[in-house]
């Protein structure tokens, strides 16, 4: 099979975790870079990456690299590509673009010109041409422009890989599945000891922890990846790879996951999501305040959580007692536990009084966060 260069993207701060995943999956020549991990491989490797990588947001296949100092250079370079290998004239198309330190610095305009080049190359004599379609297009392209050097890539994933396919209940501002997986991996959890989420919400951390514990592929729940709409896609070969991933893994017999939420509706959402993923048997969900959980002495488990940040005006002040009391609970009742706590509010995080813990910068959507890591 033909070998390609791929780039698995991830959220800022997650690169080292994704690099470890790429290496563990046995993908060739991995290289950690800003914003993701480069690797080489075949289309089958690409399928495996989409199915198995927990912290990746997208897997891009490099198509062309070229100098694009101006509008015409960009358009002509895109027009020169034989797009018939990737899209039919009656197909649908979407283009994403990122621009930095370049003469062309308007990402929407750059995406438009890339679209123009593709459409003009494929336009038939009777006027048939690809249509622009944001949702579920046949082909999604990504153009990265840095210092006038363009990298044009095929988006093999389609929708972002955080959309696993198991979520039935959205919850209120749910944590992205890819970030939840990153938190569990960064915590150093041994996949056997109890793991507790005292602010479980719709259960994202618990589902991702169960998938990690069972060494189960997170992508097998999805209905479709981007590469499945490409001309010449080998559906039979992919079906075999998907079946192997779906049958892989084995849940530890004594796995104990626990989630608590003070809102009964949120707890019900967590239960629904666990059931949708076929993982309800791995976890206990209780309607309870975060300060009410009583860890048993000697458990030496893990607490992985994403407490509220107080994004709305006036909320931060109300959350100060929660953070202060939760920090006291950790120090007085959870000796020997390991902690991975995501906070988007440094002032509230200081109320935990955990000064010697590691702090790793992450991004939760548009919110700069720190992941607080350590042994209590």
Description:
It is built from 10 helices and 15 strands. With 376 residues, it is an alpha/beta fold. The protein has 2 domains: 4-155, VC0802-like (2-Layer Sandwich); 177-216 and 251-375, Vaccinia Virus protein VP39 (Rossmann fold, 3-Layer(aba) Sandwich), CATH 3.40.50. It has an 8-stranded mixed sheet with strand order 2-3-1-4-8-7-5-6. It has a 7-stranded mixed sheet with strand order 11-10-9-12-13-15-14. It starts with a strand and ends with a strand.
Features:
elongated; 376 residues; alpha/beta; 8-stranded mixed sheet; Rossmann fold; VC0802-like; 25% strand; 7-stranded mixed sheet; 2 domains
Average pLDDT rating:
94
For the biggest sheet, the summary is: 8 strands, mixed
Could you say what the CATH architecture of the largest domain is?
A: 3-Layer(aba) Sandwich
Q: Classify the secondary structure makeup into a structural class.
A: alpha/beta
Count of individual helical segments = 10
* Tally of separate domains: 2
Q: Which residues form runs of ≥5 with pLDDT under 50? A: none
Order of helical and strand elements: EHEEHEHEHEEEHEHHEHEEHEHEE
User: How helix-rich are the residues, as a percent range?
Assistant: 25-40%
Strand numbers in spatial order across the main sheet: 2-3-1-4-8-7-5-6
How far apart are the termini?
50 Å
CATH class placement of the largest domain: Alpha Beta
- Backbone shape: elongated
State which percent range the strand residues make up: 15-25%
Say which CATH homologous superfamily of the largest domain is assigned.
Vaccinia Virus protein VP39
Find the CATH topology of the largest domain.
Answer: Rossmann fold
Question: How many beta-strand segments?
Answer: 15
Rounded radius of gyration (Å): 23 Å
């Amino acid at each position: 099979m033909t070998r390609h260069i791929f780039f698995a993207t991830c959220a800022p701060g997650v690169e080292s975790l994704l690099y470890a995943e790429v290496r563990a999956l046995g993908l060739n020549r991995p290289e950690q870079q800003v914003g993701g991990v480069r690797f080489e491989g075949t289309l089958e490797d690409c399928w495996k990456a989409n199915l198995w990588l927990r912290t990746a947001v997208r897997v891009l296949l490099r198509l062309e690299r070229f100098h694009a100092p101006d509008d015409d250079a960009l358009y002509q370079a895109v027009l020169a590509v034989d797009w018939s290998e990737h899209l039919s004239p009656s197909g649908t198309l979407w283009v994403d673009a990122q621009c930095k330190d370049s003469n062309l610095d308007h990402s929407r305009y750059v995406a438009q010109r890339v679209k123009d080049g593709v459409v003009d190359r494929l336009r038939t004599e009777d006027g048939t041409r690809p249509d622009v379609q944001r949702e579920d297009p046949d082909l999604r392209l990504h153009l990265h422009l840095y210092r006038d050097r363009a990298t044009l890539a095929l988006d093999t994933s389609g929708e972002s890989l955080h959309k696993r396919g198991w979520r039935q209940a959205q919850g209120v501002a749910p944590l992205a599945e890819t970030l939840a997986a990153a938190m569990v991996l960064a915590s150093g959890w041994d996949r056997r000891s109890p793991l507790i989420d005292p602010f479980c919400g719709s259960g994202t951390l618990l589902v991702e922890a169960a998938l990690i514990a069972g060494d189960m592929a997170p992508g097998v729940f999805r209905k479709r990846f981007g590469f499945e709409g490409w001309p010449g896609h080998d559906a039979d070969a992919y079906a075999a790879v998907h079946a192997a991933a779906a049958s892989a893994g084995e849940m530890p017999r004594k796995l104990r996951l626990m989630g608590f939420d003070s809102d009964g509706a949120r707890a019900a959402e967590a239960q629904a999501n666990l059931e949708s993923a076929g993982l309800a048997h791995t976890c206990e969900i209780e309607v309870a305040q975060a300060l009410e959980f009583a860890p048993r002495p000697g458990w030496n488990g893990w607490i992985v959580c994403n407490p509220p940040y107080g994004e709305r005006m006036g909320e931060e002040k109300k959350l100060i007692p929660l953070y202060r009391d939760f920090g006291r609970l950790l120090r007085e009742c959870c000796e020997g536990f390991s902690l991975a706590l995501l906070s988007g509010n440094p002032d509230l995080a200081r109320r935990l009084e955990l000064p010697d813990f590691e702090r790793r910068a992450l991004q939760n959507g548009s919110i700069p966060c720190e992941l607080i890591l350590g042994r209590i």
